[in-house]
Design goal:
It comes from Trichormus variabilis SAG 1403-4b. The protein is mainly β and 404 residues long. It has three helices and 19 strands. It has one domain: Porin. The strands form two sheets. It has a 17-stranded antiparallel beta sheet that branches.
Length: 404
Amino acid sequence: MVKNLANPRQNKGDITEDSVSVFPKLDENSNLVPELTEQIREQITSVATLENLNTFADSNFLPEKLQSTPILLAAPENFNPALRVTPKPISPLPQKLPPTANKPVQPVLVLESIQTGFRSELSNSEQQNQIIEPVFQFRLLNGQKIRLKTGLNTFNQPGFEPITNIPFQVGWEGKTGKYTIQAAAGIDVFNRLPTALNFNAQIDRPIFVNFTPTYQLKSGLFLSALVEQSPYKFNAKTLENQITALRSGLNVYWQIDPNTSFFSLYRVGLYNDDNFEQQSFSRLEHKWGKFWLAANLFTWKYANDRQDMSGYFSPHDFLVYNGEIGWGGDIFSFLNCRLNTTLGQQQLNGKTTGVNSYQTRCTAKISPNIDLDFGYGFSNVRNLDTGDSSYNNKTFTSQLQVKF
């Protein structure tokens, strides 16, 4: 539910070279509550090596040999041409011109990677969303990035004709000083609904950072601000009613020490059906080797309950808190897996019930340039008000990343 950005993948505990910050890039196609903790954990709790932290690619901050991306100066430094008058030689000697080297012409745009994500959500209310979205990432000569995203998404729900969605979006990413800026805009095309516009923007900045002698992140504080507008891809009914949402918010990530981190986000949303939402999420995590323990707190409030009219889960008061334990490590030299489970409680409009979830995700190294992620998750955290009836959601995910 909270969005941004292509979804950067973690590989054996390190943020990949495609990451732009320690902040998670959440997808509007994801129903936030059950899967948020895994997305957050994968992308912010393993800020492991300096070379993978593009956020710190600042010539005034890091030694040149440690920068993950080259800094191209707008103009040469310390270049002061002067005119010199020299006597004309009486007998000019023939000069040998150095052989001209045929330098290869560098292309303006280079394809860096293709990342194809798959996600299938199925609840016990027979509501199913299936998302397939490839992202093509290009790098410009100046280090900036261009991303093209498309896809084929389907939304099925009893009582409604299936809806097919094809998104088209063009994004840009660049740096200025210590700021990383992202912006994207596009359209959503539907098989039987009007075309809708979408856009998002995000700015990230490190406040302070400290490294260990081996150049791993020791401590640091990072801030991010974002805004987005798009169709609310909650289910077929919500799309049928052409619900759109404009959201904005802040992210804070605090690396307390090499093994302890804190993450928090806050969002506000305005809907075109005159609804208003607020949501927050906080997570405190500590790692012991390959294991971790975490505490999660999530709150969600809407001004009006529009579930019957508009189709989306919109509680007046929703609270989830749980504890989490997990493990991550190599099963084989080519296979890295992560498993976690949570146990806690949820409170919906004053009624408290127990909640639990479990998730597993593995990364297979197919070749030096090809990675395949696949995972499964189960949760009974509510994403729909079903009254006294039970609710659960199953999620299958996979992602294929090809680097060039």
